[in-house]
Design goal:
Strand content: 25-35%
Structural class: alpha+beta
CATH class: Alpha Beta
Oligomer: single chain
Number of domains: 1
Strand order of the largest sheet: 1-4-5-2
CATH superfamily: Hypothetical protein apc22750. Chain B
Order of helices and strands: EHHEEHEEEHHEE
Number of strands: 8
CATH topology: Translation Initiation Factor IF3
Distance between the termini: 45 Å
Shape: globular
Largest sheet: 4 strands, mixed
Helix content: 25-40%
Radius of gyration: 22 Å
């Protein structure tokens, strides 16, 4: 099943960013997906899927695609089948970090990855039931509610499609890293008062966190034997953990061509006639 996505006081100086990342073998990774499974989808969701199957049979579909997106999807060789979604309300655990040390928070990294994966898997299960080849226009949202400070709802929504021609998505790939950025010591801060100077501990910490997220996204694409990743982007959010704890989330669509001879039509220039 493929996806296509749309286009938050010590007197000594703090130590440099240290690599406390999760080992590659222990890093978050996609679980094995069982085609045809309905695990995790409630009864109301299964009833909606049965109604959607009847709608697909008579050629009717519902989608969150805009008019322009719908036309582009049709032009690219996809046939919309219906709106699919997945959801998971997840309790996010706690992990302590030293105030002056930059390091990945593995517990939070695993929680954020697993919660998204649950939502995405349930969305994929719905698309499978419709006989889809892939899902386009996928978006991942996180919602929080007043009745649970440590709870978050992870929602995945997209349009299930059949592929007619063109490039084939082999999966949505993602990588994440929840990172604690260490604070500077008082002496180091005083030395920088009124000066234009780089903050090397912050630079190194953010650079390392982004690299971990991107590396994990690329590793997932390699596992799918993809030819490349399109629509890749990196999102940075704190999710209420505090200013020095940030999640770096890399996401994109792994693709392969349907044939070696496939060519993309040259775009046509359009000039507006108004003003």
């Amino acid at each position: 099943m493929g996806f296509l996505r749309r286009d938050d006081d010590d007197t000594q100086a703090a130590p440099q960013a240290q690599s406390q990342a999760v080992a590659p073998a222990d890093a978050p990774h996609a679980a094995t997906y069982e085609a045809g499974s309905l695990a995790g989808i409630p009864e109301s969701g299964r009833e909606r899927i049965e109604r959607m199957k009847q709608e697909v049979a008579r050629g009717f579909f519902t989608s969150d695609l805009s008019v322009n997106e719908f036309l582009l999807v049709k032009q690219s060789g996809f046939e919309p089948l219906g709106l699919v979604l997945g959801s998971s309300i997840y309790h996010i655990g706690f992990q302590q970090a030293m105030w002056n040390q930059s390091q990945e928070l593995g517990v939070l990294t695993q929680a954020m990855y697993h919660a998204r994966e649950l939502a995405m898997t349930r969305m994929e299960e719905e698309a499978d039931q419709l006989g889809a080849d892939g899902i386009v226009g996928v978006r991942l949202d996180i919602g929080r509610y007043e009745w649970g400070a440590d709870l978050a709802e992870f929602i995945s929504v997209g349009t299930a499609t059949l592929l007619r021609a063109g490039y084939r998505p082999v999966g949505m790939v993602m990588g994440n890293c929840v990172y604690h950025v260490g604070r500077q010591g008082m002496l180091a801060s005083l030395k920088q008062v009124g000066r234009n100077v780089e903050m090397p501990n912050y630079t190194q910490a953010l650079y390392e966190a982004r690299e971990l997220a991107m590396e994990r996204m690329q590793r997932e694409a390699d596992e799918l034997q993809a030819g490349g990743i399109v629509g890749a982007r990196i999102v940075e959010r704190s999710h209420g953990w505090g200013s020095h704890v940030i999640e770096f989330f890399a996401i994109g669509t792994a693709v392969v061509p349907t044939s070696a001879e496939h060519e993309i039509e040259k775009p046509t220039m359009v000039l507006p006639l108004s003003g």
